[in-house]
Every structure is written in C-alpha cells, then in structure tokens.
Amino acid sequence: MSETPAENAAAEPEEDIFEQKAVRLAKRERLIAERDTPAGGAYPVSVPVTTTIGALRAQYGDLEAGAETGQTASVAGRVVFSRNTGKLCFASLQAGDGSRIQAMVSLANVGDDSLARWKELVDLGDHVAVTGEIVSSRRGELSIMVSDWQIAAKAVLPLPNLYNDLNEETRVRQRYLDLIVREQARTTVVARAKANASLRATFAEHDFLEVETPMLQVQPGGATARPFITHSNAFDTELYMRIAPELYLKRAVVGGIDRVFEINRNFRNEGADSTHSPEFAMLEAYQAYTDYNGIADLTQELIQKAAVAVAGSTTVTWADGTEYDLGGEWDRVSMYPSLSEAAGVEVTPQTSMDELLALAERSGVEVPPHVTHGKLVEELWEHFVKAHLTRPTFVMDFPVDTSPLVREHRSIPGVVEKWDLYVRGFELATGYSELVDPVIQRERFVEQAALADRGDDEAMRIDEDFLRALEHGMPPTGGMGMGIDRLLMAITGLGIRETILFPLVK
Asked: Where along this sequence does the record place binding of Mg(2+) 1 (predicted)?
C-alpha cells in the first residue's frame, strides 16, 4: 500500500526505513519479472512523454473546475502525494522544477488489473509516466485522467516528510533530497544559473573574452592562501590546486587579450564557515587601459545586473524577508581615514608599529602571528569599521605590504590602489590597479618569500615564469575578483553552504 506524506518521515527509526526498503525491493523484483510486458520493468530505458508538467500548467492552469479539454498528453514526474480510495486513486506528480499535476487513476478508465497494480506497486518517490486526458477535477485541480501508466523509476528508499523541514545537515549532505522537498533549494540553483548568465552577458556587452586557465599548477599564486597539494604520477612532481587564476589571466593580457575573464573553481586549504568554503567559484576579470576606479564601476554594473536577472530588481529580498538595496551609486571610503575616524586616533601608513600594537591592546584586537604593519591596520579596520557598513561600499587604498600584486597609489605614499567591496557585512569582491612593473613585482615577491621563510603559510612565492611574462610588457590594467557563491549570498541572503549545490562537508 502506498504511503501518504504524513506516514513517511525523514527522521523515521532506522528499522522502519529498513522495513520499507525491503517491501520496495520486493516490488522492484516483481516489476523486473514483468519487464517483458507492456507496462513492466522497474527502470525502463524510456517512457512516453509528449510534454512537461510545467508546460501543461502554463497552458491549462486556468481551467474551470470540472472542465474537460478532450486533449491527451503523456507526462512523467515523481510521486510526492498518493491517496487510494476504492475505485479512484489520486497522486501528485512533481517535475524537477517543482511544478505539479494531479494524476487520477480510476477503475472506469484503466480497468481492474491496472488499478490493482497501481495500488500495489506505486510508492511515494517513484517516477511514474501517465497518459490521459487533460482535465480539471471537481475541486479545480489540473489533472490527467489516466488511461495508461508505467513506472519510470522505482524508489527503494522513502522520501522525507514533505511537511517537515529538513535539518541543515541533511540539506547539505543529501542535496538531492533537498531539491526534491524544498522550493528554496530549487530556486537557489536557478538563481545561480541566472546570475552566471547575466555576468557573461554583461562581459559580452563590454567586449570581454572568456578563457580557461589551469586548475593544476606547478606553483600556486595570485592570492595569499594556503594551497592544496597533490602529486602527478606522469610528471613525478608535486602540483597545487589553483588558489586563483590571476597570474595566468595577466599572462593573457600580456599576450594581447586586453579584456579577459574567467569563472572558475578555486581551492584554498583554510577554514570553513558561513562565508568560506575550501572549494569555491570565483570570477576574475582584467581590463587593459583602466584602473581600480574603472574596474569598480564595472563590478557595480555586473552585480546590479545580476540582481535584476535573479530578483527582478536591484532591491533584493533575502531569505529572512529583509529587503536590501543594491541600486544606485555605491559608497567609496578610504581605509586609513575611515579607521582614524572610527578609532578616534589618527592612523596613517607612517604610524609606528608600537602605536598600532598599543591601539590593538587597548581595543582588545587579537594580533595574528607574523603580523606586518599593513596586516595589523587591516585587523584594526575590521574591528572598528567593518560592522558599521550597511550599504554596499568600496573600501579603497590598502596597505602596500598586504597587496603584493597591486600598483602603488599614484598620490598617497604607503598605500596601493586596491579596493574591497563589502556587502551584507562580508567581502564580496576585490579590485586593483594592477602592478605591471616587473622590477617592483620581483621585489614584492622577494618580500613575500621572506614572510614564508618566517613561517607564513599563506605568503606568495617567487614566480619566475610570471615575471618573465611581465618583462615582455603589460599595459596599464584594472583587475577584479569576486566570489560567485558570495554573490548569491548577497542577492539571496543565504549562507555559503546553501548557495553551493554540493558543498564540501566533513
């Protein structure tokens, strides 16, 4: 006998699930034995399908109660509700996009044997194909009055209870169940696809080319992060999973691809929390003959158009119901002046390390190991300023010693032309006026190597091949990087594990 949703729960005792699985496996064996009959088989290679459930709802969704169309259709879907009442059985079939249609299996239309087989063999979770007239039930539910049906795939495990929320662990570990059960999970997948399509369309409007760069690298670079290490048997050498595509995309600019971008997977061997994942999707883009101001304008356009593509407006509604305005011109503040104002004491690139350490001690700011002047300034800025940013804000002009790939500021000594974009209280993107002088770039790499020698696992290494590329001449360039997962967080209000379809979990 088929279960109803109320009788089928994700949190059922293990023995109950085992018993249900045994019953379903027995039904599978019966279907396998009947595979040579017209309606037999538990996993047929194909079933008759002439349209989709969504298409039927779009065409016939406004039928009056009790209406008959005289039109026949064949559709398939997963059984998510089942009620067997004597001579008439009802089932809700759900498509992958969440759209549903009612299947009505009656004695008058299918006969005794077919109706009995339906009652005996069809369970919640099964994929079923039905053929019949498109009608509206007496209660006004769009339906198929079934004349023929067939199992499309037999489910041997029960579905979770459709009326109870899945816990977070189940949602991220068994995303396939999350997609079946929860509308938000499906809409998040669609939102991500729409955002990526929008990003590509905006880049196309600006004549950018999309390229692909290596995910396995002989030397990691392009960011300060600890890499994942693997081994190549073919080359008998250590390789590193990409932490950023930056140095390869800059090689492309050297080669004459003046506007280039990549949407890629990056891997960083670091902590996981509500805004960080060891594996994540990243957008990086580089445009010759612009600077960090021009690339900030482009980044604002990319995000605002993505918001419109996903939410229909630059004012987005997060999962908790909060509205957030991504429209208009975004604020731009400078790091040192904003820190000075918030801390009540002037902080400049010339402020001594002793003064910074004293301010950190007075303010209860933990000083990380291997701290540099610039790193401590950034820690203090996060303590005093970050939490007070409400609107989308470009934080400009970072310390030079934390930004080894960035050009020095054209007029302010001791800082570089870099911004970080903060939205919803987290860093969404970063942008530079790129450092293109190979001599200074080598000096910066040497400084990073010294940090690595002192035990900084995230420091960069000297990349001779990249330096050789720069020595052939790279034009003035603006570059940016943005987490795709975080873009979805900004638009939807969800955590990072919700925006990744299959997140890495322990």
From this structure: 420, 427
Give me the domain span that covers residue 140. 14-153
Let me know whether 306 and 454 are in one domain.
yes
Question: Does residue 134 lie within any of the structural domains?
Answer: yes
Would you say 420 is a known binding-site residue?
yes
Per-residue H/E/C for 240-307:
EECCCCHHHHHHHHHCCCCEEEEEEEEECCCCCECCECCEEEEEEEEEECCCHHHHHHHHHHHHHHHH
List C-alpha distances in Å: 173 to 180, 319, 357, 504: 14, 21, 43, 9
Q: Mark whether 116 and 206 lie in a shared domain.
A: no
Instruction: Give the per-residue SS3 of 4-50.
Output: CHHHCCCCCCHHHHHHHHHHHHHHHHHHHHCCCCCCCCCCCCCCCCC
Q: Taking Cα atoms as reference points, which of 49, 40, 15 lies closest to residue 121?
A: 40
382 known member of a binding site? no
Structural domains counted in the chain: 2
Task: Calculate the CA dihedral of residues 55, 61, 63, 64 and round it to 10 degrees.
Answer: 160
**pLDDT tens digits along 172-218:** 889 999 999 999 999 999 999 999 999 999 999 999 999 999 999 88
Would the pTM of this model clear 0.85, i.e. be above it? yes
As a residue count, the chain comes to 506
